[in-house]
Structure formats: C-alpha cells, structure tokens
Amino acid sequence: WLTAGRRQTAMGRAELVLAERTANWTERKQETQQLPGLLEWLRIRWFTRADAWRPTERRMLARADRFHGRRGLSAAALVAAVLAGGIAVRSRVVESQRRLAAEGAVNTLLNADMATVEGALAGLAPYPSAALPTLQKVMTDGDDARQRLNAALGVARLAGAGAGSAATPAATYLAERLIVAEPDEVAPIVTALSPQWGSFAAR
User: Fold this and answer.
1) Phi–psi pair at 37, nearest 5 degrees
2) How many CB atoms lie within 10 A of CB 195?
3) What is the Rg, in whole angstroms, of the alpha carbon atoms belonging to the chain?
4) DSSP secondary-structure letter at 9?
5) pLDDT at position 163, please?
6) CB-neighbour burial class of residue 13 (10 A; exposed 0-12, middle 13-18, buried 19+)
7) Residue 23 φ/ψ, nearest 5 degrees
8) Nearest to 7 by CA among 24, 20, 26
C-alpha cells in the first residue's frame, strides 16, 4: 500500500527508482550498467532531496553524476564538431557561389558595349576583392582592346583610381586611351577620370 501510494507522485516515483537502482548497483558489484539511465538520473536529481539520500544512494549517484557528466561532455563535443563542420562547409559553399557570381559579373563587363558598360560596372560592386585581380590582369595583358578598356574602367571603379593618385595604372591607361578613343568610349572614360581630371589637365 505504501509503495502504491508513493507511485502516485513524481517525488515518490523518483525515490522508488533511486532505491531500486541503488539496490541493483550494490548487488551487482557497482557495475556501470546498473546506474540510472539519463532520464532516470534527471528525475532522481530533480524530484528527490539530497539530504534524504542514504549513504549507498549518495555513492551510487556520485558515480552516476560522473558517468553522465562524461557522456554529456562527449555529446557536447560531438555537437560542436558537427556544427563547426557545417559552418565550414556553408562558408565554402557561400564563397564558391560568390566567386562564381564575381566571375559572371567580370565576364559581363568584359563583353559589354559602351551603351551597357555602366550597368556592368554597377554589377561589380558586391565583388571588389574577387573581381579586381582578374580585371587588372586583363587590363595589363589582354589582347582585345575593348576588353582592356572595360577592364580598366572596372579597376578604376573598384579600386577608386578615379579619386586616387593620377599615377595609378588604371587612371594612366584610361588617360592615354582617351586620346585615341572612339566616340562612344569618351563618356565612360571621362566619367571614370572626372574626380581627378585636373591632375591630368595640368600635365
């Protein structure tokens, strides 16, 4: 009757589990397999009072604390490793997508005509660090004159050559190209050079 009454409350059920587990643990030479499972251990810890534990129950629970503590740390380390791996994979995917987008923006600029070059230049804005090296290489070593011009316009836009030193390669290239520019090339070149046009006019 007493046992049945204790089963009616959460505290009573936890106390019965504690007594049962302690008895099994003691009888089986303190085997780890006889320790309370995780949920049982949590229930015992939550619903029973430490000052009411018997000495054997206290020893058994101390062992259970260490056991579940180690397992908890291992689980936490595993979760952390999985999360770190997921973050690393996501970062690589995002970086790969960004690189592909930058390549697409660069190709759009290199193949743009003067009527659409401003829109292509605006498309480079999100990718300065990814696009700049390719544009600089095309500007310096490219074989196609129009692509070299477009690349120089892109470098000027991304590196701020128009607002910086007149000696920058992009600004110098654009100033020299202006001398032989086709009519439709003049406006984009002047726009790129206009922030420091006075520096070239004084030369």
Assistant:
1) -65, 175
2) 15
3) 37
4) S
5) 39
6) middle
7) -65, -45
8) 20
Residues 88-95: contacts with CB under 8 Å, at least 24 apart: none
- What would the pLDDT profile of 158-191 be if each residue is shown by its tens digit? 876 443 443 478 888 998 999 999 999 999 999 9
Give the pLDDT confidence of 67-124 residue by residue, as tens digits.
999 988 998 999 999 989 888 888 888 888 888 999 999 999 999 999 999 999 999 9
Distance CA 181, CA 55 (A): 96
The position carrying tokens 């030479």 is 29
| Separation CA 56–CA 28 (nearest Å) | 13
Question: Residue 144 in contact with residue 151, Cβ under 8 Å?
Answer: no
Could you tell me if 86 and 115 are in contact, meaning their C-beta atoms sit under 8 angstroms apart?
A: no
| Each residue's pLDDT tens digit, 29-51 | 888 888 999 899 999 999 998 88
What residue spans of 111-168 are helical by DSSP H?
A: 117-122, 128-141, 145-159
CA distances in angstroms from 151 to 20, 30, 79, 140, 159, listed in the order given: 79, 76, 47, 9, 12
